[in-house]
């Protein structure tokens, strides 16, 4: 099974090569040349563990990895570092099922992929006889950087550089990044937003002089962002697992269509659900939920992508994004794998900040519906869900729940609950009508109010020293990278 670029001007590569490269040399994103031939036997899957289902998906998409290599990745990625033996948990409220993806080391859905990616990358490098040090370059709106450092921290022959916006991340997210103690971690806040960081990271990845300079020093770039296919594929697993568990508990019948609601900014998490549908997951509607940076809502409602708008710092900060990188992959498939069409849109986005898909491609988006939630409605949603059900959700999941109520859906719906409410204790407490205290006092306050135990990841976090405090302009990213890695 080969991977090719969405922009059609790069050679086909194996899964290992795609994982190592991160991004294709023509600037495109790697996609499967064809979908793997995989028959999902739901009667069997409903009785399988998360690890067993992950093995099936990894075997299908990473077919140049041996059985032993896949088994090693799975055992390392989904072991004792998880709060839940099932990796993911579920909370049912009638036809709505919360898919809890936040029981990993950093309490974010991104752990599920980023606990696997370092092992995928290490094995891929060995397979390709690469001896250079891997430089993992990551832009984050809060959770990716923390989860990436948890996965790559002190991994042999690896350095990880994380850039996050100075304003917008939660106090817990900031503390998680600033207190990272791994010797190979380099963390910088930037004066700007996530898009500034992501744009600069992409520029660095494509800087031929820098790439050659690193090569001379026996280093090479890769990425832990969801542009890396090794990050995206592990996310397919939990949608397959969710359907299998619904079937096991007789909440659906095999083949019955479900809906999937995902709060998303960079479009990776919901793209994984789309990938799952392409290999046999029965889906009726995909619901794209945005915060006030609602560029995706407008796109799916009009076919026009327009990032030329005010960037808003919201109370759902991980979604404060105006350039949704993974959307390029969806457009590639919905355009009938037309690379020329994709290139024309991406060029227009670079040059004008906008593009308009043609009528045929737009018609193929019918399976996607979209909406957005304001900052006020996020707070109202947290309170309403708690008051009515006693269940506590974080602000990103609240975005998803609010949009779920806006659209008309038939049948069972899975809502991706992407982060623990304890990561955003101040926002959650304020929404619940409480005056939030500072730091760990606020975490304890939330725990007492919602009658839920503080996750050990949070309690241990406040025992760690603050290490990374440097704030830079986005234009300084190249110089601090050179200083951190080469000088």
Concise synopsis of the structure shown:
This protein is α/β, with parallel strands linked by helices.
Strand order within the widest beta sheet:
3-4-14-9-10-13
Task: Fill in the CATH topology of the domain at 89-108 and 230-458.
Answer: Rossmann fold
Mean pLDDT: 95
Q: How many β-strand stretches?
A: 15
Taking all Cα atoms into account, the compactness measure Rg is 21 Å
Strand content: 15-25%
Uncertain runs: none
The oligomeric state of the chains shown is single chain
What is the level 1 CATH name of the domain at 89-108 and 230-458?
Answer: Alpha Beta
In helices, the fraction of residues equals: 40-55%
Envelope shape: globular
Main beta sheet: 6 strands, mixed
From the N-terminal CA to the C-terminal CA, the straight-line distance is 40 Å
Q: Which structural class should the secondary elements be placed in?
A: alpha/beta
Count of DSSP helices? 22
What is the annotated CATH architecture of the domain at 89-108 and 230-458?
3-Layer(aba) Sandwich
């Amino acid at each position: 099974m080969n991977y090719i670029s969405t922009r059609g001007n790069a050679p086909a590569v194996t899964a290992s090569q795609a994982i190592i490269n991160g991004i294709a040399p023509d600037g495109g994103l790697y996609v499967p040349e064809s979908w793997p031939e995989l028959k999902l036997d739901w009667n069997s899957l409903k009785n399988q563990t998360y690890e067993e289902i992950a093995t099936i998906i990894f075997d299908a998409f990473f077919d140049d990895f041996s059985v032993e290599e896949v088994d090693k990745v799975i055992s390392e990625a989904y072991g004792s570092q998880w709060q839940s033996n099932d990796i993911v948990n579920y909370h049912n409220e009638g036809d709505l099922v919360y898919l809890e993806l936040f029981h990993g080391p950093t309490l974010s859905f991104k752990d599920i992929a980023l606990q696997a990616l370092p092992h995928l990358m290490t094995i891929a490098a060995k397979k390709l006889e690469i001896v250079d040090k891997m430089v993992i370059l990551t832009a984050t709106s809060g959770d990716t950087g923390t989860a990436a450092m948890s996965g790559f921290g002190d991994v042999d022959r690896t350095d990880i550089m994380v850039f996050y916006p100075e304003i917008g991340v939660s106090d817990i997210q900031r503390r998680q990044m600033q207190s990272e103690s791994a010797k190979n971690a380099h963390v910088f806040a930037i004066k700007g937003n996530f898009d500034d960081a992501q744009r600069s990271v992409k520029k660095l990845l494509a800087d031929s002089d820098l790439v050659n300079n690193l090569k001379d020093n026996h280093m090479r770039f890769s990425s832990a962002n969801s542009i890396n296919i090794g990050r995206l594929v592990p996310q397919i697993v939990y949608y397959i697992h969710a359907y299998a568990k619904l079937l096991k508990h007789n909440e659906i019948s095999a083949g019955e269509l479900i809906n999937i609601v995902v709060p998303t900014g960079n479009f990776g998490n919901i793209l994984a659900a789309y990938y799952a549908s392409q290999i046999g997951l029965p889906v009726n509607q995909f619901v794209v939920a945005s915060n006030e940076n609602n560029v995706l809502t407008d796109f799916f409602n009009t076919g026009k992508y327009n990032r030329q708008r005010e960037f808003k710092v919201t109370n759902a900060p991980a979604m404060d994004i105006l350039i949704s990188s993974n959307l390029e992959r969806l457009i590639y498939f919905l355009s009938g794998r037309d690379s020329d069409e994709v290139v024309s849109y991406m060029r227009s986005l670079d040059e004008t900040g906008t593009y308009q898909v043609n009528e045929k491609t737009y018609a193929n988006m019918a399976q996607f519906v979209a909406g957005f939630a304001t900052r006020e409605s996020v707070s109202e949603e947290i309170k309403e869900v708690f008051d009515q059900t006693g269940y506590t959700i974080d602000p990103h999941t609240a975005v998803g729940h609010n949009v779920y109520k806006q659209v008309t859906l038939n049948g069972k719906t899975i809502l991706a609950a992407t982060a623990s409410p304890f990561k955003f204790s101040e926002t959650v407490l304020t929404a619940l009508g409480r005056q939030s205290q500072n730091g760990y006092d606020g975490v304890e306050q939330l725990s007492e109010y919602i009658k839920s135990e503080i996750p050990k990841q949070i309690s241990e976090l406040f025992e760690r020293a603050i290490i990374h405090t440097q704030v830079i302009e986005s234009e300084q990213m190249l110089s601090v990278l050179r200083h951190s890695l080469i000088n």
